[in-house]
UniProtKB/TrEMBL annotation:
SUPFAM superfamilies, alphabetized: Phosphoglucomutase, first 3 domains (SSF53738)
Quaternary structure annotation from Swiss-Prot or TrEMBL: Monomer.
Entry's Gene Ontology molecular function annotations: phosphoglucomutase activity; phosphomannomutase activity
Gene name linked to the record: pgm
An example Gene Ontology CC term for this record: chloroplast stroma
Keywords carried by this UniProt record: Carbohydrate metabolism, Glucose metabolism, Isomerase, Phosphoprotein
Residue intervals of the Alpha-D-phosphohexomutase alpha/beta/alpha domain: 49-184, 210-318, 322-422
Protein name listed in UniProt: phosphoglucomutase (alpha-D-glucose-1,6-bisphosphate-dependent)
GO biological process: glucose metabolic process
Entry's EC annotation: 5.4.2.2
Cofactor(s) this protein requires: Mg(2+)
Family: Belongs to the phosphohexose mutase family.
Matches recorded under InterPro entries: A-D-PHexomutase_a/b/a-I, A-D-PHexomutase_a/b/a-I/II/III, A-D-PHexomutase_a/b/a-II, A-D-PHexomutase_a/b/a-III, Alpha-D-phosphohexomutase_SF, Phosphoglucosamine_mutase
Length: 583
């Protein structure tokens, strides 16, 4: 019989809880493997979703946390890329969480799993994803690893885990390795978790240190000639935290720097998210923030997602700045500091954004969708001596080389606030929206979804077959004027799929981008097809620089690809057909 070894962070006592081995169950193994969501874990943790059962259970979370602890210990001991310069007596791991209602119950499972692995656990309580990583960096904490419990902008019924070491967030392949290990543990246990911690972990106030870190950056970089400690005096800034973890930015950062934050929205954490989805891409979130900015004549509005690894802003005229506009704004700021730097984005960005970056002397690298893919591409380019200071995805994930390549929504807003104050100090009366006035918007854009008609366990394989068939159709010129997009001189080939360097990045989801040409071989739009890592479906993104272009591309995609290939029997084409009908 195996035993759960619970180690106290505040005493040397230990507790053993007996469990019983059972034979491996293939269904149990697949159940745990399906919890993986790219570079993290995310599934249903609370009843309430129609047609979805709870699968992120305490036993599953305990097995995953234990496997992360074992994986981390092995890396610190054996892997030269991870190995510490000095021996590690006890591996320390922190846990933070967003305000979801399942957080308390699942936290016990995490601490139990870490104890089984022999790790010493620290409880950060309500936290943000970037702060979890910083707990491995700050001198007074310096944990070997960290876990953030969150499901980002997903409904209150969901929850999940994001993993960090001192090197940054884990890759999809590393999380797959951990989930494989956890699946075997889970399947071999009958009494799978103890819901009572005899020796609770040590509580730490990491968020106070993190907020102080952000305040220091703002003060030092603005270096205000008269108000060094309160450089935001005279600015009104609205924060919409969406009842997630972002409220701290108002009272622990902005207020203490002298800003007026009257009119801010939904700062108190509420794991049911009663007002709107905490998401800078959510139209309601942006509309409410816009209204608050205009009503209060504020200088800036800020929208955070639940765990604050993403953000969006609203300028002083009420213009929402997210997606391509946010990437353009950050590009404008970064290119002032680092002329000619490369900027990596996912391959759903517009032709206009590419022009915006290149017109300012930058280089635009279009890469695979997925924030971890985009960030890792930036890391790889820097390792290859290609200076790359900004990596951003249209979802609002943005990472900077100067900030540990960490996607941090609060840090990104800090950069924008610093630029806003510098503009005022230089005598400008314009808002930050003035920096992107020349960004060309696409005439049309649309995202459609095609559900894969299959049992869940086979859905990803079916999706890959559809996407590979699409690639062959384009390569064989069956879709006239459609051409696989190598994205120009950006070190990426075969439609943003395969790296040309000696060590290509492993594929976590299949996708291709195709540029669509007119009779004179001029590009007037693009189509991007990708396998979803969240759900059993395929996302179809399109943009066009001419009116009616998206409808035309959708009709060709439907008639000359889906129906011509017989794949209308493999995927649900209702959204595709509805779009053609309505437009």
């Amino acid at each position: 019989m195996p035993a759960i070894f619970v180690r106290s962070s505040s005493s040397s006592s230990s507790t053993f809880i007996s469990t019983t081995d059972v034979f491996t169950n293939d269904d149990d193994i697949e159940r745990i493997k399906r919890l993986q969501n790219g570079s993290d874990v995310s599934r249903v943790a609370l009843e309430g979703e129609k047609g979805r059962e709870v699968d992120l259970t305490p036993p599953a979370v305990e097995a995953i946390a234990e496997s992360f602890g074992e994986w981390l210990i092995a890396k610190l001991r054996d892997d030269d890329d991870y190995k510490e310069k000095q021996g590690v007596d006890v591996v320390k791991v922190s846990l933070g969480k967003d305000p979801r209602v399942t957080g308390a119950k699942l936290s016990v499972a995490v601490f139990s799993g870490l104890a089984r692995a022999g790790c010493l656990a620290f409880d950060m309580g309500l936290a943000t994803t970037p702060a979890c990583f910083m707990s491995t960096v700050f001198p007074h904490f310096s944990y070997h690893g960290s876990i953030m419990m969150t499901a980002s902008h997903l409904p209150y019924t969901r929850n999940g885990l994001k993993f960090f070491t001192r090197r940054g967030g884990l890759t999809s392949l590393e999380v797959e390795e951990i989930c494989d290990r956890a699946a075997r543990k889970y399947a071999n246990r009958q009494a799978k978790v103890s819901l009572t911690l005899i020796n609770p972990p040590t509580k730490v106030n990491l968020m106070s240190a993190y907020a102080n870190h952000l305040r220091d950056i703002i003060k030092e970089r603005i270096n205000h000639p008269t108000n060094y400690d309160t450089p935001l005096q005279g600015f009104q800034i609205i924060v919409n935290a969406g009842n997630g973890s972002g409220g701290f930015f108002t009272w622990d950062v902005l207020d203490k720097l002298g800003a007026d934050t009257f009119g801010s929205l939904y700062l108190n954490p509420d794991g049911m998210f009663p007002n709107h989805i905490p998401n800078p891409e959510d139209k309601k979130a942006m509309a409410l923030t816009r209204a608050a900015v205009l009503e209060n004549s504020a200088d800036l509005g800020i929208v955070f997602d639940t765990d604050v690894d993403r953000s969006g802003v609203v300028d002083n005229k009420g213009n929402p700045i997210n997606g391509d506009k946010l990437i353009a704004l950050m590009s404008s700021i970064v290119l002032k500091e680092h002329p000619e730097t490369t900027i990596v984005t996912d391959a759903r960005t517009s032709i206009g954004l590419s022009r915006f970056i290149t017109n300012r002397g930058g280089k635009h690298c279009l890469y695979r969708v997925g924030y971890r893919n985009v960030i890792d591409k930036g890391v790889q380019l820097n390792e290859d001596d290609i200076e790359t200071h900004l990596m951003m995805e249209t979802s609002g994930h943005g990472a900077l080389k100067e900030n540990y390549f960490l996607d941090d929504g609060a840090y990104m807003v800090v950069k924008i606030i610093i630029e806003m104050v510098r503009m005022r100090l230089s005598g400008s009366s314009e808002g930050i929206g003035n920096l992107i006035e020349d960004l060309e918007d696409p005439v049309e854009s649309v995202e459609l979804r095609m559900d894969v008609i299959s049992e869940p366990r086979y859905a990803k394989t079916k999706a890959v077959e559809v996407i590979d068939t699409f690639r062959r159709y384009v390569e064989e010129d069956k879709l006239e004027g459609w051409m696989l997009d190598s994205c120009g001189d950006c070190w990426v080939g075969e439609g943003c799929l395969v790296d040309l360097n000696e060590n290509p990045t492993a594929i976590d989801a299949h996708m291709y981008r195709v540029k669509v040409l007119d009779n004179e071989q001029n590009e007037h739009g693009w189509v991007h097809l990708r396998q979803s890592v969240h759900n059993p479906n395929i996302a179809v993104n399109m943009q066009s620089s001419i009116p009616g272009g998206c409808r035309s591309m959708t009709e060709i995609f439907k008639d000359k690809f889906l129906f011509a290939s017989g794949l209308d029997k493999v995927v649900d084409t209702s959204q595709i057909e509805q779009y053609v009908k309505e437009h």
